[in-house]
Amino acid sequence: MGDSRGHWDGKALVVENTDYNDKVTFRFPAANSSLRVTERFTRTGKDSIDYRFTVDNPAMYTKSWTAVLPL
C-alpha cells in the first residue's frame, strides 16, 4: 500500500518503497509519509539469495535499521 520502484545495482535488485498510506499496519504500525523501506535481493549462490531490508522512518526511530535474511 505504497509505491515500489526497482532498479539494478550491480548484481543486486534494489526495491525502494515509499508513500505508504495510513492503512499500512502489517510490519510498520503508524506508517506515515516519512517511512521508506529499501530492499536488496542479491544472489549468493545457485540456490540462495541474500535478502536485506532497511527501514528508515524518522517519525518512529532515531536511526534507520537493517535486517538480513538468507533465502
Which secondary-structure class do the elements indicate? mainly beta
How many E strands? 5
Number of helices: 0
Strand content: over 45%
The N- and C-terminal alpha carbons lie at a distance of: 24 Å
User: What's the rounded overall pLDDT mean?
Assistant: 87
Low-confidence stretches: none
The spatial strand order of the largest sheet comes to: 1-2-3-4-5
Rough shape? elongated
- Largest sheet geometry: 5 strands, antiparallel
**What gyration radius follows from the Cα positions, in whole Å?**
13 Å
Tell me roughly what share of residues is in helical segments.
under 10%
Give the SSE order as H and E letters. EEEEE
Describe this structure in words.
- The chain is mostly beta strands and 71 residues long.
- It is built from no helices and 5 strands.
- Strands 1-2-3-4-5 form a 5-stranded antiparallel sheet, with no helix packed on it.
- A hairpin with a 2-residue loop joins strand 3 (36-45) and strand 4 (48-56).
- The chain is elongated, with a radius of gyration of 13 Å.
- It starts with a strand and ends with a strand.
